[in-house]
Amino acid sequence: MPTTMTTLEDLLVEQVRDLYDAEKQLVRALPKMAEAAGSEDLQQAIESHLEETKNQVSRLERIFEELDKPAKGKTCKAMRGLVEEGAEALDGAQTPLTDLAIIAAAQRVEHYEISAYGTARAIAEQLGQQKIASLLEETEDEEKAADTKLTDIAADLLSEADSGPDGKTGDTTPTRSRRASR
Asked: Is there a domain that residue 2 lies in?
């Protein structure tokens, strides 16, 4: 049953509830991603972000206190879908592409969170809720940093994949482009 929203504060509460559920889903999903990662850098980045995510859940609980609302989530269907899609990258044997698939899934999650935290922060600012806006911005900044870290790890993995076993550069031209140039 949809929640009836009549005020901007109702919308903010709804957004925070969505984020709360999203972060709790990630607390459950990130250990599986870390375990599946073949790259030590990727595994460490995911484990570090798991600890950050636990802190983000606590931060959202402080926001609920500021709003004088119970800390309860509203099922975040978007995150559920992103987590399910990311789980597909974990199926099967570990290959050099598995880590890149994990990064792709994780970055989709980060982009969703950056967007959601940015929207909630803007609403809090409009309501004059500077403390809440500051807490949301802190998490938004962490999500941006996590996304950047994932981009850096992906670039390193792509560089490694570009080098063959003898250290020579491999052909990374997409198959379609190679066919078209013949």
From this structure: no
